[in-house]
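User: Can you help me understand a structure? I only have the sequence.
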Amino acid sequence: MSLLLESICYTPEGFRNLDRHIARMERSGAALYPGHAPYCLREKLLKSAPVANGTIKCRVLYDSVIREVQYAPYQPKVINSFKIVASNNLDYTHKYADRSALDALKNGVAEDEIIIVHNGLLTDASYANIIFFDGEKWLTPSKPLLQGIMREKLLVEGKIFTADISPTMLRRFVHFKLINAMLGMEESTGYAIEMLV
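Assistant: Let's start by predicting it. Here is the structure, written out as tokens:
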């Protein structure tokens, strides 16, 4: 089985949404490694964290125990084009380090990024959840491939709402953004909906 992965945003202010990352790790650990000892992620990160002068991506690799913690400067992806692709067999309930199934969907795609359709409904991009603006409110697919940390936070705060969104519904929206642990709603680039239709 592939190692699991948590990608955590680390800035001079500290680790962003750390409690949510800890909770997701414990949920995944309980589901895949019943009876494992608590990960004690907070304590491990406080011992290993470098001085942050900017935004740093912290990668935690784990299975029944934490195997490795890595730090690297964060550079957002530059995306100029998107393609919608369908996959009804992809299961990404837990955040795995092995992205070969996601990478396979991108093979042969000339565009910079893909948006994945599962059973007729939009889910996620290959590395982020997606949110759509209809002119009044932000909506996110109700059945994402991965329950992202930033998505969860924005839902709890009432800043985004869930909906079943099919490709035929895209013209109802004005623009869209990609969000993940490293990219909040305000930091994310807005893309015209015409890039998807």
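Now, to help you interpret it: The radius of gyration is 17 Å. The first strand starts at residue 4 and ends at 11. Let me know which part you'd like to focus on.
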